[in-house]
Amino acid sequence: MVTAASEMELFLPKSYDIFWSLVILIIVAVFFYKFFLPKFQAVFDERAAKIEGGIAKAEQAQKDADEAKAKYDAQLSNARVEASKIRDDARAEASHIIADARTRAEADAAQTVFFGSALTNFGVEPFLENFLRLTPTPLARVDSLTGETVDPCRDEFSAFIFKIQANMNKAHRDRIAFMRICSGKFERGMEAYHVQEGKNIKLATGTQLMAQDRAIVDEAYAGDIIGLFDPGIFSIGDTLCTGKKKIEFAGIPTFSPEHFARIEQKDTMKRKQFVKGMEQIAQEGAIQIFREVGGGMEEVVVGVVGVLQLEVLEYRLNTEYNVEIRMQQLPFEQLRWIQNDPDTYVLRDLDLTSDTKAVEDMKGNRLLLFTSDWAIRWAETHNETLKLSEFGNI
User: Fold this and answer.
1) What mean pLDDT do residues 130-148 have?
2) Rounded percentage of the chain residues whose pLDDT exceeds 70
3) What percent of the chain has pLDDT over 90?
4) Do β-strands 185-187 and 219-221 pair in parallel, antiparallel, or remain unpaired?
5) What whole-number distance in Å separates Cα of residue 200 and Cα of residue 215?
6) pLDDT tens across 158-174, in order?
7) CB within 8 A of 200, min separation 6: which ones?
8) CA distance 356 to 349
9) Which has the higher per-residue pLDDT, 117 or 107?
10) SS (H, E, C) the chain
11) Please, what is the Cα angle at 61 between 55 and 66, to 5 degrees?
């Protein structure tokens, strides 16, 4: 029993140890309460104050933002109302200006100018609307046979060819003749009288072109422009019409070229392609072809308004017709059409300068090529019956 009690005492502290432990614990607690707790409390209070201050600032910022938003909404609403008013006033003013401009334009007192942007679609619709209003109706053309005007509103169809374009589709070697309708109504598949050919032809298909897109036209009216497939029967200035009374419009005037060159093919085996290419390009009106009086197409003289057209001619013959050519610039600067009757007027009897050359165009019209104005004055002075014209008809 004694031994068991002794072993118990080994594990239990003495009473004085317990006492002094409590004393130390009390001293530490008092020290912590007096010195450390206030500092911790101050830190906690400071952080709490900062948090509360941040919350207050956030609430104030939210309040300020709401007030600013309300102010902005009010300004935006006012701006929209003001913009709507300005737009309405501008439209009213624009209508007045356009009406006044139209009146002055019809009186040839002023020209109308529109401002807009297709990229931003600004001003496009007003331009198109007013373009339709300001555009004049198709004008009447004069019948060269009778001198009478052809009313665009008459029932009989009439039109003329003003442009020909070859090889628009290189895969098919097609030619399009562009026709302007002067009166009546075009219908797909209709028959019309070709005045220059002296026979009726069928207008099987009308084509309308927009950039690279093509569309079949079933109907067209005076003022419209459509394209017709040309198998080689049309020329610039040709007239088409219907009705018992045939009409013929005056040909389109040809301006005198200012640059001339002698053209011949390098490969004589490609004469057919050379002749076809030269004739088709000439029929387009891009160049004018002249040859020796009574001569053939082996060697021709080409006249153009600008030098660039000669480069275009060489390029198109090479790429579209696979023909290489030799080109020699000629010194001629002026061209005149001979108005005298070719059956009674002999060119060999003319008194001309040595550098003047007599040629004929593809229709057999006689012409003279001059190197200077002085040579023209010489021809007119020394040949009293000679009649020269600076312009000809295609």
Assistant:
1) 84
2) 91
3) 19
4) antiparallel
5) 25
6) 999 998 888 776 665 67
7) 191, 192, 193, 194
8) 13
9) 117
10) CHHHHHHHHHHCCCHHHHHHHHHHHHHHHHHHHHHHHHHHHHHHHHHHHHHHHHHHHHHHHHHHHHHHHHHHHHHHHHHHHHHHHHHHHHHHHHHHHHHHHHHHHHCCCCCCCCCCECCCCECHHHHHHHHHHHCCCCCCEEECCCCCEECCCCCCCEEEEEEEEECCCCCCCCEEEEEEEEECEEECCEEEEECCCCEEEEECCEEEEECCEEEEECEEECCCEEEEECCCCCCCCCEEECCCCCCCECCCEECCCCEEEEEEECCHHHHHHHHHHHHHHHHCCCCEEEEECCCCCCEEEEEECCCHHHHHHHHHHHHHCCCCEEEEEECCCEEEEECCCCCCCCHHHCCCCCCCEEEEECCCCEEEEECCHHHHHHHHHHCCCCCEECCEEC
11) 130
Please state, in angstroms and rounded to a whole number, the distance separating the CA atoms of residues 289 and 303.
Answer: 6
The sign of the torsion formed by the CA atoms of 235, 236, 242, 247 equals: negative
Structure confidence at residue 282 (pLDDT): 86
Q: Extract the tokens encoding 175.
A: 């030619």
Within a 10 A sphere around the Cβ of 238, how many other Cβ atoms? 22
The position carrying tokens 């956030």 is 58
What values do phi and psi take at 311, rounded to 5? -65, -40
| Residue matched to tokens 């007192």 | 109
Tens digit of pLDDT for each residue in 11-52? 566 676 677 777 778 887 777 777 777 777 777 777 777 787
Q: Is the pTM of this model over 0.85?
A: no
What is the identity of the amino acid at 227? Answer: G
